[in-house]
Amino acid sequence: MKNNISCYADLFAAMGSEPRLKIMQLLFRSYPTGMVVNEINKELKIPNSTLSHHLEKLRIENLVKVEKDKQFLCYTANAETMEDLLSFLYTGNFSSDRLWRWAETNLASIESTKILPEEEKPMSEQLFRPIWEKLFTSLGFPLPSRFTQEAITAVKFAQCESLRLKHRYVGTEQILIGLISEKSGIAWQFLSEAGLNLDQVQTEAERLIGRGKNKSMPIFMPFTRRVKEAMENALQESLKLDKNHIGTEHVLLGILGDSNSLGFKILENLGVDPSNLEKKLRSALI
User: Fold this and answer.
1) Does the residue 89 lie in any domain?
2) Is 90 part of any domain?
3) Kind and range of the H or E element at 35?
4) Cα–Cα distance between 280 and 192 in angstroms, integer?
5) pTM to 2 decimals?
6) Which of 138, 190, 282, 283 has the smallest number of CB atoms closer than 10 Å to its CB?
């Protein structure tokens, strides 16, 4: 962990140019897969020597990681550094161990508006909601205002499930758990009618993905590529139905549209026919 203000100033300085900000945006969009240099260059259209200079500066400040992928160099955003930076902005003395203990003991009965302890809620709501929304839109998702409160709550529960299992990402399996945990939206109604309950889905998800080994509590928790695609599909489903909002029902349709996702696989493993569920849901939404 960085322990003095000058280090954080260096991080901000490293991102303080338009090309580097665009590079970070691209790498967050592709996280955790990453991008090779040619892919980044194709998007930014800047000389190779200039791109190499920017990437090296970001690497030196530990904002990006680089690994060799066959004959290419692959760059990924360093989520740990971003967590550290956001922690500094949040309090300056962030106690991840304390929040982990809170998460492990309180997630089962968490209220939809209480993702952090009550004494930290005012600052978290004022600071992290704007950051979350900016990250959300910068990664190419629809504006958060499009999402219903039920859908936003489901995403928050999905994030909490990732925290419970100490993972650093939100996958379709966590989104599915979030939809069931929300307990009021259309998606929850149809999943419940299909015979699913929270314990079943949590148990099956943990069987498939196991528990992570994170010892710190992540603040930046990116969505996997399949979740991004599911959310994009949710937007399209909403538009097809002439809606100006994205509800839990559209998010569920987004998951049901990807037979290779873990969310889809969990449904099958628990005896639910995803195709039949999709037909019933679509019929009810017409």
Assistant:
1) no
2) no
3) strand 35-36
4) 13
5) 0.60
6) 283
